[in-house]
Queue: 2 jobs
Job 1
Amino acid sequence: MNDFIAGLPKCELHLHIEGTLEPELRFELAARNGVTLPYADVAQMRAAYAFDDLPSFLRVYYEAMNVLRTEPDFYDLAMGYLRRAAEQNVRYAEIFFDPQAHTSRGVPFDVVIRGLRRALLDAETTLGVRAQLIMCFLRDFQAEYAMATLLSSLPYREWIAGVGLDSDEKGNPPAKFAAVYERARREGYLLTMHCDVDQDNATEHIRQAIEDIGVDRIDHGVNALEDLTLVEAIRDRGIGLTVCPISNRYVTGSTKTEQIRRMLDLGLRVTINSDDPAYFLGYVSENLALVAEELELTREEVVRLERNAFEIAWLPRHVKNRYLAELDGHLARA
Ligand code: ADE
Ligand code: ZN
């Protein structure tokens, strides 16, 4: 099965580019930018990556990205991820970035997006990996800051496929960002948002995301299974779910693979993704392998997870069809 997964053409839809900052690159960027880190080596740095819930993870995540300062830094971050993605036969990725995690520390929006964009263009020609950007708002900041970020993104509208919402969900419901999402939709952005696992008011947040915001996709969202009306709404509207089992194990104590099984059985468009792989120690192949093992999936079921991902990807039909044909070819050869 692991060989089958290694060769499978893959689609990654839930990946925070800042969550791919591996310790080695963090050291390199710190040296480049004259930032002093309180660790002697990678082992010490990794030992400080101690978290057991979302807030404790986010503290580590935001602290680490302080080394990202210049356009080449963002280029190297994205290129590093895309190289690893290519090694795992990721054919297409939709990549989250958190501009406010940088603009709030004085790094201009322009610096962030130009570096990321240049890496995406180079990766397509040199690695054959296609990718698009999704701009996330930080939900623990004010809605006005999200709106200002949305407006500052408009000169780069063609470089961004859609918007998302991440960071700490507690006390920060989707409704807080209704006006921001309304404007984003009018600007032509596609819409997704995190509905993180086992949050307070999780099902009410999912309801708001679907009914009040009108999202095209939901990131995580496994608590939808607790409410049949949500399951029906997700199925009727064809909303995809980007689930991240290794991440869930770190922040909730459970891989939630039983919920993935139920989503498959209910015919929901569930997909498997890696979230913040430099911290959760698993890229998309490791996440797929974990689900395949825990659920004893057949090859056909693994292909179905990947088919779901290409189906809900924000790509034109003819492009999806090319990737779906690659998937069929892999299954036929297996
Ligand atoms: N930002 C980066 N990773 C995140 C996660 N797993 N949940 C919410 N916000 C995030
Ligand atoms: Zn995430």
Note: The chain has 17 helices and eight strands.
Job 2
Amino acid sequence: MSMAKRTDPQSPAPHAADSHDLIRVHGARENNLKDVSIQIPKRRLTVFTGVSGSGKSSLVFNTIAAESQRLINETYSAFVQGFMPSLARPEVDVLDGLTTVITVDQQRMGADPRSTVGTATDANAMLRILFSRLGKPHIGPPSAYSFNTASVKASGAITVERGNKTKAQKATFSRTGGMCVRCEGRGAVSDIDLTQLYDDSKSLAEGAFTIPGWKSDSQWTVQVYAQSGFVDPDKPIREYTKKELRDFLYGEPVKVKVNGVNLTYEGLIPKIQKSFLAKDKEALQPHIRAFVERAVTFTTCPECDGTRLSEGARSSKIKRISIADACAMEIRDLAEWVRGLKEPSVAPLLTALQQTLDSFVEIGLGYLALDRPAGTLSGGEAQRVKMIRHLGSSLTDVTYVFDEPTAGLHPHDIQRMNELLLRLRDKGNTVLVVEHKPEMIAIADHVVDLGPGAGTAGGAVCFEGTVEALRAGDTITGRHLDDRTTVKETVRESGRALKIRGATANNLRDVDIDIPLGVLTVVTGVAGSGKSSLVHGSIPADEGVISVDQSPIKGSRRSNPATYTGLLDPIRKAFAKVNGVKPALFSANSEGACPTCNGAGVIYTDLGMMAGTATTCEDCEGKRFDASVLDYHLGGRDISEVLAMSVTEAEEFFGAGEAHTPAAHRILERLVDVGLGYLTIGQPLTTLSGGERQRLKLATHMGDKAGVYVLDEPTTGLHLADVEQLLGLLDRLVDSGKSVIVVEHHQAVMAHADWIIDLGPGAGHDGGRIVFEGTPADLIADRSTLTGEHLAAYVGG
Ligand code: ADP
Ligand code: ADP
Ligand code: ZN
Ligand code: ZN
């Protein structure tokens, strides 16, 4: 079913709306917004543009979406509200004409290993019903096909209290689930690789342990094993008797006396599990983290072969296909299989399932399988999966808010995304999109351009109106809308290459490729063609390679660009030196913290069932510090004022004069270099977008000695004008002797490459091959691939 057919060609003309059909924002002042007043037509597609940091998110997410959520919360009874976070009203004078807002963002899906593409949508639930009705043999209710439900059969005595008498009563309980008992529905089992723990040709006395920190003879942990009496300390481990080995590896905790001291003895495996594996991996020291990564191996569960399902659940089939087989198929193939099931008894179910699966295909995700762990999806893929629910929804008059829906999409895929957004609009919804790609801006009914610059230099509406008017007008966005870069006259030559041989990660078809070093290489291909599989799954990850992606940065809500980049250290020291006090005072995470909010600046309300929210601490007014700390100054500013500076301001402040701090200045320069000059240095990391996080990581790694940088779509979140700056940065990296490999769809970046590697021709099993390698000029001349055609049109246009 093609989408074009579903899109109503008779959709009302833009701007036909009368004044009753407007969302009116008057006097918005969130973050950098300067008293913004705009009118947004309802049931139309409005695109918000502007350089990054200009205030798009502040207007769309922090004002419009936030107020809608707050108003919805207010409709609950006082009793229910008591359990809900009280949301602060956004800084805005008037907001009217709001409808319910649904935000579809790029937040990755939870890292819950039991969540899959199928469970995150309704697809698995529908398949379970289907199998419980049609599967042969018949094995029970839908839950019998669920890997998240364990089979339980319990019977025994329960005590019942009646008045002051208690009496035992027999009870039985049973439930049929489909969970594989071996891996508990995870599909994988973890194993500890014993060869990483000790050298079995040695005895404990000879120093058999190879665990970091477990070397020294005098160390208690080691002594407990040697002196426990359970094993012979002078016998090589490989010569242990069965009993010795069992006690050594799995012994239950017991008290032992070693050299007169009472200690606890426990088998090596549980000991390792407690002392290394139970801890947050990201928080470990790098060499210990490396040990944990070596020692713990995940293998496909041998019992269920990775399907997560019990044997019973897998035995029940429809036309020779089990539910596990169905979930392992690429969704587009599954859609065809379901289409072939003609079964009047379940016709409505088949229709609903069919529609959901078709939505995946239409949205460009037909190459995924339902059993794909949700945590492994990219930000763009996650956003499109979340869209699936809404496409099928019959709600109308909803305001949908999207954050860069084209992230991760090849020019070829953008067309399809555009059709989906128009379809949502044509169902009677208001669609608000923050977006940079000209291909998407082009379909807007209405454009709101924010700027002109970032941070304090932005926050104003530079333009409102149609795309034609934007093009004709004189804003940065308007001027760049029809930008066409040309390919470079000369490209850099490379002598060396990173050789990849026989790569088979995910869909890769035994790929052999030489990635040239010392140049800018761009890896292209439609979504799902295998780009990430190639650069993340096949490039050897050693010290020479730095991979900078958009994944969330681990750390507390107190982390901010200053703490993350190490900038805060020299700043604290400079404050301490000038004022003759301890550096720790200037840390909102330690001594200097406001006692009311413990230095968070906000009071968090966490609710299991709803997204938690933050309200500003009334004591320190969000400044995070104890009032006494704010009496100390550096260059005329207190620490909270410094943390409220943008990177650009701070770069000037620490660059010269009274506050001159070279160590801080160096870090700030790098942040400016990656285009983050507008970020506030004390802004919580949780408020950064994926693209901003990536550029922050890049800035942190710029001083590293690594030779190869691998970047994943670094233009995400960047305005056309920002892209030029990014290209300059990549050039500087290459000119300083580094090799840069980027996965990108932005055509300006492709055109700027020295070398292009194009994967395809399609997605999933239709991709995974190298369809082109060479210079951009050759790619255009060839026009033999989708990327080549699009790039030719782009530079030619
Ligand atoms: P855009 O979406 O156009 O990239 P934003 O609305 O995210 O821009 O940011 C506008 C300005 O507000 C920037 O200077 C940014 O650093 C600042 N800002 C955004 N979110 C916060 C926040 N939670 N706290 C403080 N400053 C913020
Ligand atoms: P691209 O980066 O070009 O969008 P990917 O390398 O992410 O493509 O995906 C290539 C193929 O491999 C797709 O069919 C995708 O579903 C599959 N794939 C990618 N990552 C995983 C994973 N972690 N587990 C299973 N399949 C995956
Ligand atoms: Zn299993
Ligand atoms: Zn406080």
Note: The mean pLDDT is 87.
